[in-house]
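Let us work through a complete example step by step.
Step 1: write down the sequence.
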Amino acid sequence: MKRLSLALTVCLLAAPPDSRALPAAWADDLTDPLAALDEVTPRIAQSVLPSVVLLDVERTAAAKRPLSPIERLGLGVSLQLPGYFDRPTGPVTAVCVAPGLVATSCWNVDGQGEVTAILPSGDRVPARRLGRDENLDLALFAVDAPGLVPLARSTEEPRVGRFLFLIARTGQGGPLVTSGIVSGLGRHRKDAFAHSARTSYQSVGGALVDLDGKLVGIAVRHNDRAPQGQSSGVAFGVPASAMSKGLDRMAKGEVVERRKSPLLGIVGDQTVTEGGVKVAQVMPGSGAAAAGVKAGDVIKIFNSVELRNFMHLREEIEKLAVGEEIVITVRRGEEDLDIRAKLGVRTGED
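Step 2: predict the structure and record it as tokens.
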């Protein structure tokens, strides 16, 4: 628990006096935040876990898929590890968000297999698929369990630096608790926020709660294709407020399909970290190819924005829509060229 001290101490010391809203358990021990954290963590976990369940999903055996060149390159010495990108079998975590309703990441429950809820008591009851929102990466299930208590939702929106607990269950039903802070907002086309709580295959779908044990969001979008750090690093959550807005639609069985994402159609040279984006490769048939962008070009300006690096370019593309026409300025040799390009649509493999 001591390793959490730095993040917590920074949160407490950086906050202005009128924003230090802490649970009553902290009131008498503000001079020792580590001791307060040690005391409050199990209390919060105990208060939240009655609303956290497991979903046992009937899955078909997944076919082994070939690795892409980028994946092979990223894995390096790990290339010999069998099943590195395979999703483990076993129950997944979900959260009770309303009477008779539990929510989890869509990624947790892909397919149409039967689902059984494993309640905190250990009892097993059927879970019926309802709707889902593919933009939020949330799927909703109906569970007939009168004793299952919905988790109270926070009325505050996530803010950078806010302290969080991620509370989930292991495949055997035990508690799985990590912590961190909200580290970024407006991720995944503004549908999610980033957080630093350590995540894993098992904790996706878990409850992200504040220091009062109230639901701030649900952990979503675990990256099962990351060549490294599958159980750590930057993770994402869908805000409880966004979930609440779409809850009625999902409860009616509606499916909100993922919005199409725009694509320029280049592969950036990752060795160039600032001062524009050097084009390593142009995807055939893409908007960049049709516009005449060539490998070796350096994109300096995109849609009137001077670029810092490749990640900056991705952020700017995500602000736009499929089919939108933009102007990019590229450096080709000693010449700067203005090129008009039309954004295409990103597929799942791009």
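Step 3: interpret the result. The two ends are 40 Å apart (CA to CA).
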